[in-house]
Write a sequence for this structure.
């Protein structure tokens, strides 16, 4: 007869240890079952690795010591707590858990024991996600890293963007050539400290970072990878793939645990006390989307207290209370109310949801208040708990958004300015979540990603070709859409091709060109993210040729809607059909009447080649007005301690447009990517500025594709404020540009934020030739010039 | 396209025009005993206005270098400067009652006319020449032209090594050096005239073994000449754009001195 326990704890990780030590201290009959080592979670870490104790503001409960320290220190502390608490440990592999009557049977090779309660804390590390690419050889690919010292002088490719990938990459980077392959461009899942360290390493060249890339195949000594610039082959002796763990779903489902969806990333739903749908069975830690050690230890403690009937509230209760104190009533009720109100988050586990709340801000807003304004550069995400808001588009069109919905997702996905002003329509409770937190959820919970993708599409369609369309119609349309990626310069479709597909640009931008009478392709315009191209061809049932060629200016993500789907849906919505036809006819007429202007087209081609479509605000000189006095440069130097941040002659020019070398305050500022102290930031008004915390590493200078950042001496003449000086007027006061000595820091255009009147270069141009414009203003300027000729 | 003349729909033109009309009307309405002159009350007031205006116009040199000023743009100031300057050419004769003579008082007016006319010349050229320069350069910079010319010069001299005297004669006739003096810059004569007939004669005289290289060198000099002519045009335009200031500025300083003398003389030695 197997032993019977009050509680059986599966997995001796932080959650299991937390539960087991508590049970032991309370004198409960218990067993801690582990097939490998105590503290597997960090036992598998590389040697001497520093273990971090995040989140710092969360208190630690129970009897398991845990503080930031080396792997060895933490493990020693845990071993001590097991012996001090006299935990009953059983080394065995569990193959199944069955509920028989009131008891759980724990099966290994044979029946191991029975228990009234089961606590599952087995984590996901035992089942790592595999690389699964052709040519994968076990001797070349590893899914963990025990000792970084095992590698010397090798080419190592680390795949992944989480904490494990970052730590492994940093661990081996001292003695090896390390490349880090990241499917995205950032590290949203990584801890703050790791984020900083990896950007430091990338900035200093210690780790080569491949963004938006995937592994294609492996061969001995090499790896083939797909990057936005094209497929490349890199030297690679070893691959360390840290792609996270997969939930042991089959094992959990065999016990009777239910999942909210078939999504492979879905986690089981648990109660506030971590009890699953199987009464008496509790699930903790990574299995329910809680990856941090401290959280798991706390959960172990809470579960035992709960089983014993002791009142205990979650450790993060204080933090949740703090967030919800703006709402009247009990915070638990409010939490439940918010969860109920927001279907977007319905597949989050309660712990995941609590974490979201802790990272977010709850706003109570009155009718008429503005949430954010068009062209703001904020990137947070809003959910409407109650009340409603109105999105006010530039066209004057207003779209109401009702409770349970969300807004601000456009900025979140495409990295652009706010496209519209949002105003509270009825008194509202809004949840404002940071971009990073939502990106984390998009990565972790498939349903969140799908819903947001669909919403993005729906709104792009609504604001471009289907104003006032029935939301149901749009929903149907987007469910049939396909996601596609185009590389830079890749053609979406060619003029004259049969038109079969409508594209919604999700990320990036495209250029539209048409054939001139002379037969050459002439650029007409560019279309940024959030807009639709190719809609003309979808109007009639007969296939029409494309009226223009559309190609990607930068790596571009689009959503494609096929014509048959589109027509089928349109047929059932006559009102929408009518409006759509009107819009398309108007465009058709415009196309026919507008001749292809080769001069304007060539100028457009030139400015696009200069990358201005990625610019938020760039300096432009109208050569038809410029007299070459260089007062712009003099003004810049005089207002920036003797260094001009613009180079008029160094820039490129074409026809009557000059683009001097000067910061464009890009939409996707590459300079910001590798800044170790995060000194480069974007201001709410869109400017990219360098703060005083610059350490002078020069990463931004190397990363800027336009050469607008220079290293300048930090030592300068404080008296020289650029104001009037008789000495300077007479040429007797020298500017201090080349004063020797002093550490150098990065310097670039700051839009003269310290001056009231705006950029000195523009204000000091005697003929009005210098101006700061955005891409759409440039387009209208070129059109004006074309007409006046 | 809005220039500094038409800044804000000719705001400064209209303001000055209205002022001139009023001042002219007052001038004719006023019937002083002893006739209209600088020493009537109207004359004094107009003299004061003109002096203040000249000081303000001089201040433009300071304003141009006050880069932190945030109250207005330099373009607006230039517009005001231009139209106020032009209107002074009318206000001053009204001040003097159109009395001119060979004295220091009339010298001040003469200096002022020189300043105003040179200013008008400069301003008109600013607007007229900027698009010409842009169109002429076709997107490049004059330094690129200079680089091209230097490259071709090196090519030409590399072809001259070990060649006969006849060959060198041909090169001397066909090739040229740029002559950047003030005079050549203004006249637009950086590149000397090309004598095509003597070049073809010299080419014909060459030994048949050097004919091929001779032809090559002549084609190189032709390309060099083409770049030189473009540079010449560029330099000519830029010189015109800058040179007038060498009249405008010294004469404006002389004007201030002369006006000061005029005021001292008028009040001390009347």
């Amino acid at each position: 007869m197997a032993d019977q326990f009050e509680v059986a704890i599966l997995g001796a990780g932080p959650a299991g240890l937390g539960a087991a030590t508590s049970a032991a201290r309370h004198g409960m009959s218990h067993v801690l079952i582990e097939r490998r080592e105590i503290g597997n979670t960090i036992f598998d870490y590389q040697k001497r690795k520093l273990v971090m104790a995040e989140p710092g503001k969360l208190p630690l409960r129970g009897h398991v010591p845990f503080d930031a320290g080396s792997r060895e220190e933490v493990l020693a502390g845990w071993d001590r707590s097991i012996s001090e608490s006299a935990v009953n440990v059983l080394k065995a592999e569990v193959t199944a858990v069955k509920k028989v009557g009131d008891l759980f049977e724990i099966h290994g090779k044979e029946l191991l024991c029975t228990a009234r309660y089961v606590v599952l804390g087995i984590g996901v590390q035992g089942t790592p996600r595999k690389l699964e690419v052709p040519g994968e050889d076990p001797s070349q690919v590893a899914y963990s890293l025990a000792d970084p010292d095992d590698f010397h002088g090798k080419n190592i490719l680390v795949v992944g963007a989480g904490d494990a990938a970052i730590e492994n990459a940093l661990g081996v980077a001292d003695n090896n050539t390390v490349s880090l392959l990241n499917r995205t461009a950032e590290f949203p899942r990584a801890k703050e400290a790791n984020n900083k360290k990896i950007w430091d390493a990338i900035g200093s060249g210690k780790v080569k970072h491949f963004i938006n890339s995937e592994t294609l195949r492996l061969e001995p000594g090499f790896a083939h990878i797909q990057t936005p610039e094209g497929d490349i082959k890199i030297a690679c002796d070893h691959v360390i793939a840290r792609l996270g763990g997969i939930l042991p779903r089959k094992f959990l489902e065999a016990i009777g645990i239910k999942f909210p969806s078939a999504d492979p990333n879905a986690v089981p739903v648990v109660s506030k006390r971590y009890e699953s749908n199987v009464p008496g069975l509790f699930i903790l830690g990574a299995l329910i989307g809680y990856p941090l050690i401290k959280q798991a230890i706390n959960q172990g403690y809470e579960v035992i207290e709960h089983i014993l009937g002791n009142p205990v509230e979650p450790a993060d209760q204080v933090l949740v209370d703090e967030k919800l104190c703006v709402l009247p009533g009990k915070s638990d009720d409010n939490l439940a109310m918010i969860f109920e109100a927001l279907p977007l988050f319905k597949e989050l586990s309660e712990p995941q949801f609590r974490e979201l709340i802790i990272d977010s801000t709850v706003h109570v807003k009155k009718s008429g208040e503005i949430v954010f304004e068009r062209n703001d550069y904020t990137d947070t995400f809003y959910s409407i708990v109650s009340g409603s808001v109105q999105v006010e588009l530039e066209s004057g069109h207003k779209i109401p958004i009702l409770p349970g919905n969300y807004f601000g997702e456009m900025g979140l996905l495409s990295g652009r300015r706010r496209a519209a002003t949002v105003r509270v329509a009825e008194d509202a409770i809004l949840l404002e979540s940071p971009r990073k937190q939502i990106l984390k959820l998009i990565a972790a919970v498939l349903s969140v990603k799908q819903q947001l993708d669909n919403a993005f599409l729906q709104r792009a369609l609504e604001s471009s070709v289907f104003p006032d369309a029935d939301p149901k119609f749009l929903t149907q349309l987007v469910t049939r859409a396909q996601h596609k990626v185009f590389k830079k310069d890749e053609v979406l479709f060619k003029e004259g091709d049969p038109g079969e597909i409508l594209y919604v640009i999700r990320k990036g931008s495209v250029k539209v060109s048409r054939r001139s009478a002379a037969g050459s392709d002439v650029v007409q315009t560019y279309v940024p993210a959030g807009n639709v191209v190719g809609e003309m061809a979808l109007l009639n049932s007969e296939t029409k040729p494309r009226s223009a060629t559309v190609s990607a200016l930068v790596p571009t993500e689009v959503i494609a809607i096929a014509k048959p789907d589109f027509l089928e849906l349109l047929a059932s919505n006559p009102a929408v059909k009518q409006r759509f036809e009107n819009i398309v006819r108007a465009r058709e007429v415009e196309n026919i009447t507008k001749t292809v202007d080769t001069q304007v087209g060539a100028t457009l081609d030139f400015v696009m080649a200069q990358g201005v479509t990625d610019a938020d605000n760039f300096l432009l000189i109208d050569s038809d007005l410029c007299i070459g006095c260089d007062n712009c440069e003099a003004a810049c130097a005089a207002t920036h301690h003797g260094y001009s941040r613009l180079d008029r002659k160094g820039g490129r020019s074409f026809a009557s447009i000059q683009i001097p070398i000067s910061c464009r305050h890009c939409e996707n500022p590459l300079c910001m990517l590798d800044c170790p102290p995060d000194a480069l930031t974007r201001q709410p008004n869109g400017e990219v500025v360098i703060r005083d915390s610059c350490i002078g590493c020069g990463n931004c200078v190397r990363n800027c594709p336009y050469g607008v950042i220079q290293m300048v001496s930090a030592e300068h003449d404080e008296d020289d404020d650029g104001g009037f000086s008789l000495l300077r007027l007479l040429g007797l006061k020298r500017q201090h540009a080349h004063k020797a000595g002093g550490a150098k820091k990065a310097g670039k255009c700051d839009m003269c934020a310290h001056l009231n009147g705006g950029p000195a270069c523009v204000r000091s141009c005697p003929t009005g030739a210098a101006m700061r414009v955005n891409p759409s203003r440039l387009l209208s300027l070129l059109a004006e010039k074309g007409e006046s000729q | 396209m809005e220039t500094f003349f038409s800044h804000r729909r000719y705001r400064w033109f209209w303001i000055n025009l209205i002022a001139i009309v009023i001042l002219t009307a007052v001038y004719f309405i006023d019937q002083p005993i002893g006739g209209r002159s600088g020493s009537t009350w109207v004359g004094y007031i107009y003299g004061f206005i003109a002096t203040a205006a000249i000081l303000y116009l001089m201040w433009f040199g300071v304003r141009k270098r006050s880069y932190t000023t945030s109250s207005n743009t330099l373009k607006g100031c230039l517009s005001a400067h231009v139209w106020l300057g032009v209107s002074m050419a009318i206000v001053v004769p009204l001040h003097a009652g159109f009395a001119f003579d060979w004295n220091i008082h009339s010298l001040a007016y003469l200096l002022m006319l020189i300043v105003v006319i040179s200013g008008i010349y400069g301003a008109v050229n600013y607007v007229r020449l900027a698009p010409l320069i842009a169109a002429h350069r076709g997107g490049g910079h004059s330094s690129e032209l200079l680089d091209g010319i230097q490259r071709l010069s090196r090519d030409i001299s590399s072809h001259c090594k070990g060649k006969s005297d006849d060959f060198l004669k041909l090169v001397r006739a066909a090739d040229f050096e740029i002559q950047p003096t003030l005079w050549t810059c203004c006249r637009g004569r950086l590149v000397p005239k090309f004598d095509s007939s003597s070049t073809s004669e010299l080419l014909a005289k060459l030994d048949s073994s050097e004919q091929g290289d001779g032809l090559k060198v002549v084609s190189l000099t032709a390309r060099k000449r083409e770049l030189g002519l473009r540079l010449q045009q560029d330099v000519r335009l830029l010189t015109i754009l800058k040179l007038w200031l060498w009249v405008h500025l010294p004469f404006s300083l002389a004007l201030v001195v002369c006006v000061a003398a005029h005021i001292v003389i008028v009040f001390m030695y009347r």
